[in-house]
Structures are given as C-alpha cells and as structure tokens.
Structure prediction request, 481 residues.
Amino acid sequence: MDIKELEQRWRSLANEMEALTTPPDDFDESEPFVMDEKAAARFDELEGEVASIEGQIATIRRRESAISRSQLHESGDDRQTSTRFGVPGVNYNRDPYDVTTIGIDATVDEMRGRIETGLERDRVTPDSCKDEAMRTLDRVHGNKSSVARLYLATGSTKYRSAFAKAIAGQEAQWTDDERLVMARAQSLTDAAGGYAVPFTLDPTIIGTDAGSINPMRRISRVVQTTTDSWNGVTGPAVSFTWRAEGVEETDAAITLAQPSIPVHKLAGFVPFSIEVGSDWAAIDSDLRNAMIEGRDNAEATAHINGTGSGQPTGIITALDGGASEVAQATGETFTAEDVYNLQRQLPPRHRMTTPRWVMNIGTANDIRQFDTGGGGNFWTSLAPGAPETLLGWPWEESSVMDDSPDINPAVTADNFILLVGNFSRYIIVDRVGMTVELIPHLFGGTANYPTGQRGLYAYLRSGADSVDDNAFRLLNVATTL
Prediction:
C-alpha cells in the first residue's frame, strides 16, 4: 500500500473502533459504558492492525515529520500533529470539523471545543444561530455525543459546498474531500440516500426567531433528543405536616408520573426548475429561511390543536374536557369577569412563575375594550420596548386560537378563546437532525415525461404535549342553539 492507502485504511479502522465504543442513542450517560465481549474482542483485533499500519506510516513519514515539525515551530503555526495513535507525521489541516482527527475516546467536551472553534471562524452564519446551536447541544436529552458528531460532520465548509452542489443536482462535481464528508454525514442520518442539513441551517437546531406569530416554541420548554421519544418524570410536592415532639411520622410518599412524548415526522416537498437549482447562489440563507418558515407554519396549528395522532398534541387538545377547562361566567358571552376568574383559578404554584396569556388578536382587542375608564389598569401598556401585560402577566398572540369576535350564539360550539398558564409544562420535543433528499427529475402526470424540474423532500421529527394540565387554565365560551 502507498501512504494514501495506508492512511485511508487507518481512518477506516479508527471509525470502526469508534463505532464499537460509541453508546447507543438510548444509553444513559450517567452510567459508564462497557463493551460486550464480542465487541471487546473485535476492538483488540482492530487495535493490532492499527499498530501495524502506524509502524508503516512512521517509517514512510519519518523524514517528512521532522521537516514538518520544524516548519511548524518556526512559523508559529497553531495546527497540531495527531498523536491519537502515536503516528508521527500524520498532520491534518486546522479544520476543526476534520473528523479524521477525532479520537475514538473523544469526550463531548472535546468535540464541543472543536465546534466552538469552527463557529468562531464562521463568517456566514448569524450569531443568533450560532448561540442557539450551542444551546441545543447543551439541552439534548440523551446521547449528546451523537449530536456533537452530527455537528462536526455537517459543519465544515466542505460539507456546505457539497450540500449546495447536491441540491443543484451536481453531485458529479464533488471533489474527493466533498464526497468523503457527505458519506460520513449520511451515516448519521435515519435513511440512506438523504443529505443531513448543515447544522447551521437545520431548523431542529437553530430554532425560530422571536418574531414568529406562533408563540408556542418561544414560550414553551423545548428539549432535543436523539431517540424516538422523550421520557420525563413529574410529581406533586411532598406533603409536610406539623408534628409534636416524639410523635410518629406518617407516610408522605408521592406518586410519580412518567410522561412520554413521541416524535412524529414533519415533511415538506419543494419543486424547482433545473435553471433555478443551477443559479441558486444564496442557497444558505434562502434554504434556512424557507425551512424555518415552513416548519413554523405547520407547528402553529399543531401546537394549539394538534390531535396527537401522527402529530404533536396541541395544548387545547390536551386541556379540552379536563379539569383545567373553565366555563364562561355569563350566558354565551365573553366578559371581563371571565378574565379575572381564569387568573384566579390558576394554582398558586404556577402563578409564581410569571405565567403568560395566549389569545387571538381579536380576543385581545375585546379585552382592551373592557377597561374603558383605564383606572383599573386592566390592560397595561408599558414604555416602548416593554411587553404589554394583562393583569400583570405578559400575553402572546396566536392566530390559531379561537377568536372572541367570532363567537356565534346561534350555533352549538366550543370557543376556546383564552389560555393562561406556566408554559414550561408544555414540552416540545425535537429529534435533532433534519434530512433533505433530492429528487433529480420530476415527471408530468399526462405522458409521464420529465418536466425540467427537480424536487426537494425535507423531513424532520418533532412532538409536543402537556406534562401537567394543572399548570394551565383554558376559557371555553360554549354556545348552544
């Protein structure tokens, strides 16, 4: 083998050793990971071959290594010589996303350092996206290392250029390096043939901006996972009792619940002409904005009224018909008394968390008109830049909520017009990693001939549900014939 073939074989062996020592997605990182006997035996076998290859590389590169180290010392270059397997002279470039230099025993902190370095050098991605990417990594529920590896595999400039060429149908123009980084990233996706979206474009990582008309993702608790569901633990407060001296205690055990929120596939299909694909110069910003907007539009309805079957469970769906649903005070009308009553019924435990109101803009305008005198500060408009508050709590607009001006006493219907609560108890779960597949040619429905178009099929997985319905109160102004 020549030096290039030896290095390729070395990397292949290192990747297999890494796979053997990587915990599964559902592994509890609080416990040490131990390989089984079969995996340990294979690891020892690979390690022996690695040692042999290292010796061959060392012999071939001894002189080059000495020259390289001398040049690095004299120039003050900050790149490092790989010593993962004690291979002198195997010098890789300073790209922090170069996964070939990641040891099989690399920790999440080590990979995080690489990611931070890469983001510092990134002059294209907005700072807000960089910050959100790191927050996403911090709050991953489960195997953080798999997400860190996804970041490293999809964050390099080589991967982004290869991804852009793929979207344009120009895979034949990939360089050898681009072909390699794409293959590595594909191994981390759910389906072969799809391209993992560069993590600095991925809406499951960078999130939405604060200007969305859909408030649920901004005000709820968002968690990331690498599995097909999120599992948590909830429970009431422990009951304490005043006791006299020497009196035997009673059992104060509490019942813990284990809510589980599954993730569901959310997909979108975008056809575009071959000409557009070839001329799509602003693919990064355009694709990022399109994916964020598309996901947000789909979730605006799902997070409010989602059925929970094949899609997230909306907050209205979760509360409908339960103890948190509150009826109007008078007839079939919405009055100021309903607002006061809804606030009063929210449990004290959740009133201490600065709850939020959620309503349609029409309902908000009706409430503004309740306090015609202004003396009660029913609805407070603060200084410029400060949010408006209703009875001291901020409010959010949702265009999906029922609208109080649309209440029709002449029909039988539920009208869920006002919601208040502690939204940390509504959890949105994202399975980190969005995938895009390119359909190179679309065909017409008449003669089944090509239309001169390509298609992008993008999909991600997300879910949501309330884990504590008592943290909310929902006003239903029900009407009957």
Summary: The chain has a mean pLDDT of 79. Residues 201-235+252-481 form a domain with the phage-related protein like fold fold (CATH 3.90.1690).
